[in-house]
Design a protein that fits this description.
This is L-arabinokinase. It is a multi-pass membrane protein. The protein has 1399 residues and is α/β, with parallel strands linked by helices.
Length: 1399
């Protein structure tokens, strides 16, 4: 694990140590690296060491601060960093080409020169910030090396490869291998993932010290203290922007860093000299405006200065620094066009209200110097055992850095983890949701169909309506201010797609088979009159007229993709002066101006396409919220799902009737022409027209849907993410597509030549003529291609050569680069053969199920994968996943059983992304998928996401568009009838009928339910003889007492769950004393310190949590404190109503005795709990044992809680349902038969639950994490090794877990047996329903138990499993209570057979 070193001042004795020689290499990228190097070098030289700095930065950067004969400057450029075309834009292709020129091509001579130089200066240590080749040179010279940085170039350049072409991959691998020779990394805050380094030390910020006070600087500048000072800091890169006086509000002056002598500045702008000491100026300012870099962020944080930042394009260091800046409440993002247009005022107003709160160390220079000195003197550090260069090639996964899910990568610092699931919203149990109501909203039309993600998204809208300005995430703040929450909102959902077969052959007219994914995108749209549109402050400052329609968009999950979270524009920008929509080319350039906002083209582009293709005019303002759980860059059509969801919602909101097929075709135009990505139409078709658990079969000529292919029940498809970012906008996909169209053009030309020559035979002439007019490559059969044209096609051709010979290639969405070279044979051959493979695959799917069938399907997928690789669209990550599937498949040959996984292939546009896997639908297959996931992580350091399951497309049903209104039953708040016709201004009759139907349902106009029958039984039996009621005072009193008892039981249920969470988070031993009456928690720093000291004396701290900080202690303390106070709250909640009902005379003597006993047992539960905790505060018997509570005491505590719950729940049932539901003597006799089975089954359920307490007490769930076997055997060794024998059943981990497994299996069989023998009995429907529910809950509980075991007992699953045990016990209690024998008076009144209305 990384070690965090805080301030470690260099002692006076350091000067007495021998003088050391350091070679310090500085990257050529910007001044930020050089300035932080100055601070480290200054401390090294002050300790008497000599430092040779190798840098291309100007000498004054170093010599201004350091005046010493021990500083030597060697002006050499060994890496070029990122080449910037302007202050905010990185040229990715030029960056890689420049690096090749500087560091790759002359690599051998550089290494020879550097090795010789290092030996000549007799360097003791090489330090790199962060020059890759310096580490390799040091290794060749036999000198230790250390890197000091917050990012590394392998990480930065990996993203550039997507734009510059994968032939540059070797650069990234070489850089990673160079870094691997470094001994360890000194890592700065705000760091990126850097898997190339073996070991890590974390240090505080490296910040230059201040030389002058704020007052001195302002005095020298002539700026009074009452004037606001803005520092304009875009690094050493000249901006060339023309600054204007009106950019600044009154009372502000701007200091411009890096201003040229020729630049004319307005009177309220002051140019600073190039060698100005920036830290002093920053400290004297009130705000900074600039681009994010390590230097600007670190010094802004150190000075607690608000920082208005503008995103840089394509520099992946930025998101991590930006997140750190915002975490410490010091950042405000400015949109680039507001910077250039001078709309600064709203940002400055916001910035001065910030209160940056960074309180960490700023002495990283001193700390780093001490580490470097110790290392140079020979101090060794233990290394983590990471593998070599091959692992590094896999670990540096191209583009993975910005596509990870929260919590997936241990290298990402804690503050970078996104709070909550920004790619979606937390999952909820949809069974608890009404199909027509979401908290705070009413669904006026449509139905969420039980889709969990839709329910969650609707819930998230309700949450946004409440949060106001109290949410931490900027995108949530923007979304909260996006909608008028009293008006209607239209929501649409569109899934991603898993490319099962077909892939990149779509643009060549192939048959494709696509499965919609479970993951989907939701778009919420609202239209308002421009005068009523809510505007963000910066948008309001820009849009002076409130009569012009505005488009505002918020995208959730922006931080995962380094894009701006918001976008706004005048819709008039989409119009020419003559009133016609602008061209697609103009739109493409409009969105390309600011790459951090280019994502908006996918959303806003739908509006332009509707304007151009359907002549729609938008007179209202539009607000759009987009939230997608379809991961980006994984090859599962994240872009298509965004386009289809947005298009569907906008069309619905404006009353446009568009078929799902036409929606897909319109969305393809968005992607091809507005976004500029050359994709086919299959992605949009699957998202719009797909159906859950079926494959959409479509011939892409251009979009002919053949129908839906049922996935056989014995077959299942998975998608496994390689972590390598896929992009259809990447050069490889585009060049392969161009190659295919060039091949088609050549084939047509060859055929035309033969036709014109007149030499073809008559029987062949018709075929040749057909080929001469070939419209799609896939219409050419494989055998004809091989026989007639394969030998004529070249392997490759240059763009210039092709265009001179053939002219245009016939593809309107790609452009040939004359200087480029294109492969022809493989891209042409692939779609021709792929079309044949897909046809065979489709036919096999519908064949008779057999082993040969799935083997054949798998082989077709393997062939497809190989063909992708031949086109140059493979990747190391996807190849590794396919090989892992092949290894799993090979396992079946050594067994008699049939196989489980049969084939795999790369999907979509290739070059990374997701692998589709086919296998049998079985538990074993799922286990093998998890095993592949685990092995891939071991090899690459990346835990792949698994796509599993399916969901309907956006246009599959007529209720896939949801109209919702907040808290309104007015007929004016309506959404409408079909999925494509929704108009917020009209009033559809069907919408009204749906609404009225919902209201009548709520009034209870339905058949009697179980609850109704129970109430009827109770009310009808009150006056009958032989029935002793527990509550007097009539039905209303019974209702009140029953509600109180049910509430108390629910409280106990929550106590049990909270106790489980407390145990699983190891919080139970955090409070080392106990008082019956309770006590106040620590409320001051002093009280917390005192409580923490008490905990430090406990065995748990000494053996488990040593080194825990106060914040971590507070978490476990609050967990235990909440558990205890929740229990005391239950006592009060029980006692007060109990006293009231006693005083009112509602409680009978019998009930009073029962409740008094339960109250006493509850009070004793507190003592039992402390008795249990006390056992964990004692020293363990062995020095190797971890402290934990006694399993006997834990079992007693849990059993006591279960007993209290059962008593309360049974008593509550007896109060509200004094008679069981019995409408005939036949049903009574049937209930008696069921009861004979239910009682022993209940006993087994109870014993199983208690055995679970011993599993928890012995931490047995964290052993033998396999199923169904325990490790490699069915019965583990040593299950009876303890003496006496009985101890094994309560203290032996293996025995305790085996017992629980056997009891759980027995429970499942017993409840299944009860269902089997009672399924034909004549019993009350309520009893049948309860038995069925019990069977279902048992299956859920067993699944939870197995999942908890296989997942090493995560808190979520562990607590859910404990709650499941209590739920199952609840159902058994309810069943037994329902099976009671009725009173004699009720028996006398019952008929022999139930009446028909109850049958």
């Amino acid at each position: 694990m990384p070690t965090l070193l805080q301030t470690a001042p260099m002692s006076e004795s350091d000067s007495s140590r021998p003088s050391l020689v350091f070679a310090y290499y500085v990257t050529g990228h910007g001044f930020g690296h050089a300035t932080r190097v100055v601070e480290v070098v200054r401390h090294l030289i002050s300790s008497g060491h000599r430092v040779h700095v190798v840098s291309a930065a100007p000498e004054f950067v170093f010599t201004t601060e350091i005046h010493s004969p021990n500083l030597f400057i060697r002006h050499v450029l060994l890496d070029s960093g990122s080449v910037q075309s302007d202050a905010l834009t990185v040229d990715r292709r030029a960056s890689l080409e420049k690096y090749c020129e500087i560091a790759v091509e002359p690599r051998d001579s550089i290494l020879a020169t550097e090795v010789e130089w290092l030996k000549s200066i007799k360097a003791n240590l090489v330090v790199s910030d962060v020059v890759p080749i310096a580490c390799r040179a040091a290794a060749n010279a036999g000198i230790r090396s250390v890197c000091l940085t917050n990012f590394s170039w392998d990480f930065i350049y990996a993203e550039y490869v997507m734009a510059a072409g994968h032939h540059h991959q070797s650069i990234v691998w070489q850089i990673a291998e160079d870094y691997s020779h470094c001994e360890f990394l000194i890592r700065l805050p705000g760091h990126c993932p850097m898997p190339a380094f073996h070991d890590v030390i974390d240090i505080p910020l490296v910040v230059r010290p201040l030389h002058k006070s704020r007052e001195e600087v302002r005095r020298e500048l002539g700026v009074p203290n009452n004037v606001k000072l803005l520092i304009f800091n875009f690094g050493g890169q000249p901006t060339g922007w023309k600054l204007k006086e009106e950019y600044l509000p009154a009372g502000w002056i701007c200091l411009v860093c890096g201003a040229s002598a020729k630049q004319e500045l307005p009177p309220n702008f002051i140019g600073l000299p190039k060698d100005v000491y920036t830290p002093d100026v920053i400290a004297a300012s009130d705000c900074m405006l600039g681009k994010i870099g390590y230097g600007t962020v670190s010094e802004a944080l150190a000075c607690k200065l608000p920082f208005i930042f503008v995103r840089r394009d394509y520099f992946n260091e930025e998101p991590f620094l930006r997140k750190m800046l915002e975490y410490y409440q010091g950042g405000v993002e400015m949109i680039r066009r507001d910077l250039l247009a001078g709309c600064w005022a709203p940002y400055l107003e916001r910035a001065v209200t910030l209160k940056p709160c960074y309180d960490g160390g700023i002495d990283g220079g001193e700390v780093a110097a001490k580490i470097l000195q110790d290392t140079a003197m020979g101090k060794k550090r233990s290394k983590l055992n990471l593998s070599g260069a091959r692992r590094l090639q896999d670990a540096i996964i191209l583009g993975f850095q910005l596509q990870r899910a929260p919590g997936r990568d241990l290298s990402v610092p804690e503050w970078y983890q996104v709070t909550g699931d920004e790619a979606g919203t937390p999952l909820v149990d949809q069974t608890q949701k009404s199909p027509k109501f979401v908290e705070g909203f009413e669904i006026l039309h449509g139905d969420h169909h039980g889709l969990i993600d839709t329910v969650s998204f609707l819930d998230s809208l309700a949450t946004l309506a409440k949060i106001g300005g109290h949410h931490q995430e900027r995108e949530h703040l923007a979304a909260a201010a996006l909608f008028n929450w009293e008006e209607d909102i239209v929501v649409a959902r569109a899934p991603g797609r898993l490319d099962v077969m077909g892939g990149i052959a779509d643009y060549s007219g192939s048959l494709v088979l696509l499965m919609p994914t479970r993951e989907a995108c939701h778009a919420a749209v609202q239209r308002n009159h421009p005068s009523k549109q809510k505007l963000w402050k910066h948008a309001e400052a820009r849009h002076h007229s409130r009569d012009t329609p505005i488009l505002e968009i918020v995208s959730f999950g922006s931080e995962l993709s380094n894009r701006g979270p918001t976008f706004d524009m005048d819709l008039s920008d989409f119009m020419e002066e003559d009133g016609k929509p602008i061209s697609y080319d103009k739109a493409y350039h409009y969105f390309s101006k600011d790459p951090s906002q280019k994502w908006a083209a996918y959303v806003a582009g739908t509006i332009l396409v509707l304007m151009r293709e359907m002549n729609v005019r938008f007179e209202d303002s539009i607000s759009i919220l987009v939230s997608s759980t379809v991961p980006e860059g994984k090859g599962v059509s994240s872009s298509a799902s965004v386009e289809v969801a947005t298009m569907s919602a906008i069309a619905a909101a404006h009353g446009l009737e568009i078929s799902p097929r036409d929606v897909a075709l319109l969305c393809q135009k968005v992607e091809n022409y507005v976004v500029g990505a050359p994709c086919g139409v299959m992605d949009q078709m699957a998202s719009a027209c797909g159906e859950a658990n079926k494959l959409l079969a479509m011939i892409c000529q251009p979009a002919e849907i053949l129908g839906l292919v049922e996935i056989p029940s014995h077959i299942r498809f998975w998608g496994i993410d390689s972590g390598i970012r896929h992009s259809v906008g990447g050069s490889d996909y585009g060049s392969v597509r161009i190659g295919a169209f060039i091949g088609k053009t050549m084939i047509r030309s060859f055929a035309s030549s033969e036709t014109n020559s007149g030499e073809t035979e008559e029987e062949s002439s018709e075929l040749i003529e057909y080929d001469a007019s070939l419209d799609y490559l896939c219409n050419l059969s494989p055998h004809r291609f091989q026989a007639q044209y394969a030998s004529k096609l070249p392997q490759s051709i240059t763009g210039e050569e092709f265009m001179e010979t053939y002219g245009d290639h016939g593809d309107s969405v790609t452009t040939i680069d004359r200087k480029g070279t294109y492969h022809i044979m493989a891209p042409t051959k692939h779609p021709i053969y792929e079309n044949f493979r897909v046809q065979a695959f489709k036919a096999l799917l519908t064949a008779t199920p057999s082993e040969e069938q799935v083997i054949g399907l798998g082989e077709l997928m393997y062939q497809c994968h190989s063909s992708y690789s031949a086109c140059g669209l493979g990747s190391d990550g996807t190849d590794r996943l396919v090989r892992l599937v092949q290894k799993m498949e090979k396992l079946k040959h050594s067994k008699t059983e049939n196989g489980t996984l049969y084939g795999a292939k790369i999907t979509g546009g290739g070059s990374g992304g997701t692998v589709c896997v086919i296998g049998r639908s079985s538990l074993r297959s799922s286990e093998q998928i998890l095993e592949i996931q685990r092995k891939y992580k071991e090899a690459t350091g990346f835990m792949p996401y698994v796509f599993e399951g399916s969901s309907p497309g956006a246009g599959k049903n007529k209720e896939s568009i949801y109209g919702i209104a907040r808290g309104s039953t007015s007929s004016s708040h309506r959404a409408f009838t079909s999925s494509t016709t929704v108009n917020s201004a009209s009033s559809s009759p069907l919408a009204g009928n749906s609404f009225n139907g919902l209201r009548s349902l709520l009034k209870g106009q339905k058949a009697p339910t179980f609850r109704k029958m129970s109430t009827l039984a109770a009310s009808s039996s009150e006056s009958k003889e032989g029935l002793k009621l527990l509550v007097t005072g009539g039905p209303q009193a019974r209702k009140w007492v029953g509600a109180w008892l049910f509430g108390s039981a629910a409280w106990v249920f929550s106590m049990v769950v909270l106790g489980g969470v407390t145990r699983l988070t190891r919080s139970g031993l955090s409070m080392t004393d106990w008082k019956f009456t309770g006590e106040f928690p620590p409320l001051s720093d002093e009280a917390w310190a005192k409580e923490f000291e008490k905990y430090k004396q406990s065995p748990e701290y000494k053996r488990v949590n040593k080194g825990m900080n106060l914040e971590d202690f507070k978490f476990i303390y609050w967990m235990e404190y909440a558990h205890r106070m929740w229990g005391r709250g239950l006592g009060i909640m029980f006692a007060l109503p109990f006293s009231y009902f006693l005083r009112k005379g509602y409680i009978t003597l019998r009930l009073g005795v029962q409740l008094s006993g339960l109250f006493a047992l509850g009070a004793g539960q507190g003592f039992i709990g402390w008795w249990m905790v006390k056992s964990g505060l004692e020293e363990p018997p062995s020095e190797y044992s971890q402290p934990r509570v006694s399993p006997y005491r834990l079992a007693a505590h849990l059993t006591s809680a279960f007993a209290i719950y059962c008593g309360l729940f049974w008593t509550a049932l007896s109060v509200v349902m004094p008679e069981p539901p019995a409408e005939s003597l036949a049903w009574v006799r049937g209930a008696a038969k069921v009861k004979k089975l239910a009682l022993p089954v209940s006993f087994i359920v109870g014993i199983t639950a208690i055995s679970g307490a011993f599993v928890a007490g012995n931490d047995a769930g964290r052993a033998f994490n396999t199923f169904p076997k325990m490790g490699d055997t069915w019965i583990p060794d040593g299950i009876f090794e303890m003496k006496p024998l009985i101890r094994n059943f309560f203290e032996n981990t293996a025995t305790v877990q085996l017992d629980h497994r056997l009891l759980a299996t027995t429970t499942l069989l017993a409840i299944g047996t009860m269902w089997w023998f009672t399924r034909k009995l004549d019993i009350h429907p309520a009893v049948k329903a309860l038995i069925g529910s019990t069977v279902g809950m048992t299956a859920v509980q067993v699944t939870l138990g197995v999942s908890t075991l296989l997942s090493y007992v995560p808190v979520s699953l562990g607590s859910a499993h404990q709650a499941g045990a209590l739920t199952l016990l609840t159902l058994m209690l309810l069943l037994n209570h329902t099976l009671r024998r009725p009173s004699p008076s009720l028996l006398k009144s019952l008929p022999q057979v139930a009446k028909s209305n109850f049958s």
